[in-house]
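Most newcomers find our protein records easier to grasp once they have seen one. Each record describes a single protein and holds just a pair of labelled lines. A learned vocabulary of local backbone shapes supplies the integers on the structure line. Nothing more is needed to start thinking about how sequence determines fold. The record below serves as our worked example for the rest of this section.
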Amino acid sequence: CRQAAERLGVEIFVCKKDVPAFAKETSQSIETAARDVRYAFFSQLMTEHGIKTLCVAHNADDNLETIIFNIARGAGLSGVSGIPQTRDCDGGIIVRPLLSMSKAEILEYCEANSIEYVTDSTNTDTDYTRNRIRARILPELRAIAPGAESAAARMSDSLRADALCLDSMAEWFLSETRE
């Protein structure tokens, strides 16, 4: 990442934190603690550097993993909707421009354009729930339903629209019935 940023003349910001210690300190799972650390870092960067829009690399596979994870935890409409395209963050917005692309499509693009990429070494550790979903459930799901990522993306869009409609109807109802 550092080499690519240097080659492209792009400033890079790196955060190092002992996530297992932070997870223990905050009584969170390592996955939750890592997400909290990442978004706190993004928030800090956006505030310190006046960044209004920050892009992250979540893709369609990440969305499918999130949906399966949330279904297993009994999530409601918001959780089953998966990862949203955008997220507000301290006066700015986090955008996920690759959310409609599968990991395979991204890797194909990288290979075709001689772009190096980095795979997080913890991604193969199936002690983490998301990795277990990635390693064991997704291959079976894809055997049953090739293109499951695309189907999940369509479902996410549809459920998010349903949630927006329901929220709007609830707001209207409350405004009409309150005095």
